[in-house]
Amino acid sequence: MALLNFSQPALDATTLAAATDTMKSGWIASGPRVIEFERALSATFGGRPTRTLTSATGAMELALLACGVKPGDEVITSTQSFFSTMNMIVKVGARPVFVDCDLVTRAIDLDQVTAAITPRTKAIVPTHFPGALGDMDALYALARRHHLRVIEDAALVQGSTWNGQPIGSFGDIATFSFHPNKNMTTIEGGAIVVPDEVTARRIEVLRFHGIERLADDTRDVAVASGKYNMSDVSAAIGLAQLAQLPAFLAQRQRLAERYFEVFPAIDGAVLPPRGVPGQSWNMFCVLLPFDALGTTRQAFRAALREREIATGLSYEPSHLTTLGRSLGWREGQFPNAERIGRETVTIPLHCGMNEADVDRVCAAIADIIT
Ligand SMILES: Cc1ncc(COP(=O)(O)O)c(C=O)c1O
User: Fold this and answer.
1) 228 touches 62 (CB < 8 A)
2) Cβ of 322: how many Cβ atoms within 10 Å?
3) Which of 120, 198, 252, 302 is in the most buried spot, having the most CB atoms within 10 Å?
């Protein structure tokens, strides 16, 4: 039996042809395909200024810089996120101020955000998860009241909507990932959606060495920056994938619904939110009470792996990493994120699967648990 990955890109013939055509075109680094891809992406974000980058991690770093976050500033963020969120806050010299999340939706806890605001707070960085968003109206009302910037880590939710509006089409800044395990891919890649063209121009400068062109056609650098520009080959892949995104999202939605139908009844298990309209399903994470089940997560994952089913971990709480602890954070501060960190397992969900694969995963889980 072939291994069922927990994530896998959907690289069809159109995507492969787009890549090879661009490779033969004579222009493979940033060029016309990047511009075309950014226009197409922007159209999905209500026409808001959109720029591509080599990753969502880079997008987060440049977003923080574009917001003027600097050493000594504080950025409030959920400890339940991928490590890149914490890392980029630390990388720009700011202090990550962690708060907890909801156990089921994993949305950032807005009461804790409010309590964490100080005169040094510059921005709030929430991370969105598949299946449900936090209350975006309340988040933006809070940010407005305290004059704070918001950078939405939307790496996992390209295609999710709030009140019918796609994430990225409203609000302040949003960052997206096109890593192979996301809703669509450019191999590695990411995008940033910003509120205005001035900020978009700033991102263009920051993503390419900090280079600015002068009126006399020479170049200048005022701020030392790195290199985060997407290649035309990646952009061509992205264009082919974007055209299929609605079909990818629909397939993911069908698979998630099948999980809800056939996932075995386990006392104390926590499944993602079901039935929230307009959501996307990048991954399907379940919490399982391993202690009560008399096993460990490691043994459970190994038993699935023996049955040719791969799983992931999304995510360990950032505040309990060595880096988080070195900044003064400790166990017991954020019970929901810590429980998620102990009990979460990401089970397979990708467009290469069908409902029979979901049934196989659920049967294997039932078999191992009993
Ligand atoms: C929530 C979240 N944010 C950011 C990232 C970083 O994305 P990238 O690999 O494109 O840098 C990831 C990647 O897994 C993620 O899951």
Assistant:
1) yes
2) 6
3) 252
Tell me the sheet residues that pair with 346: 285, 312
Q: Which atom of ligand 1 is nearest to the CA of 178?
A: 10
Question: For position 289, what pLDDT does the model report?
Answer: 98
DSSP 320: G
Distance 9 CA to ligand 1 centre (A): 15
Spatial distance between the Cα atoms of 257 and 51, rounded to a whole number of angstroms: 33
What's the pLDDT at 88? 98
Helix (H) or strand (E) holding 193: strand 190-193
- Cα 86 to ligand 1 centre (Å): 11
* Statement: residue 2 has pLDDT above 90: yes
Q: Which tokens sit at 285?
A: 């994470």
**Euclidean distance between the first and final Cα of the chain, in Å?**
23
Q: Rounded to the nearest whole angstrom, what is the distance from the C-alpha of residue 83 to the centroid of ligand 1? A: 8
Collapsed DSSP state (helix, strand, coil) of residue 154: coil
Q: Average pLDDT in the 310-336 region?
A: 98
Q: Is the dihedral of CA 143, 98, 274, 6 positive or negative?
A: positive
C-alpha to C-alpha distance for 83 and 280, rounded to whole angstroms: 22
Atom 7 of ligand 1: nearest residue by CA position: 56
The predicted model gives 331-341 an average pLDDT of 98
Atom of ligand 1 nearest to the CA of 188: 10
Structure confidence at residue 370 (pLDDT): 83
Find the 287 Cα to ligand 1 centroid distance in Å.
21
Residue 1 has pLDDT above 90, yes or no: no
User: Considering only CA atoms, which residue is closest to atom 1 of ligand 1?
Assistant: 82
According to DSSP, the β-strands at 121-125 and 95-99 are unpaired
**Residues marked as catalytic:** 182
Mutating to test ligand 1, I would choose from 60, 84, 86, 128 the residue with most ligand atoms within 8 A of its C-beta, which is 84
Ordered domains of the chain (ranges, CATH): 13-238 (3.40.640.10), 246-369 (3.90.1150.10)
Cβ proximity of 87 and 323 under 8 Å = yes
